[in-house]
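Handoff note, outgoing to incoming analyst
You'll be picking up this chain. Sequence as last confirmed:
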Amino acid sequence: MNLATPLALHVMAIQQQGREWPARFPIVERCLAAIDDWEAWDVP
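Most recent structure output, in case you need it:
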């Protein structure tokens, strides 16, 4: 699973909207949770 794309889009949205830098990245947390749910860490 490619985490770079959702992370890059999230960071670009933060910068374009002029918002403060977040203490957390919920999009990354959701992606990691999906990887765990699908047990994708074990896929070769």
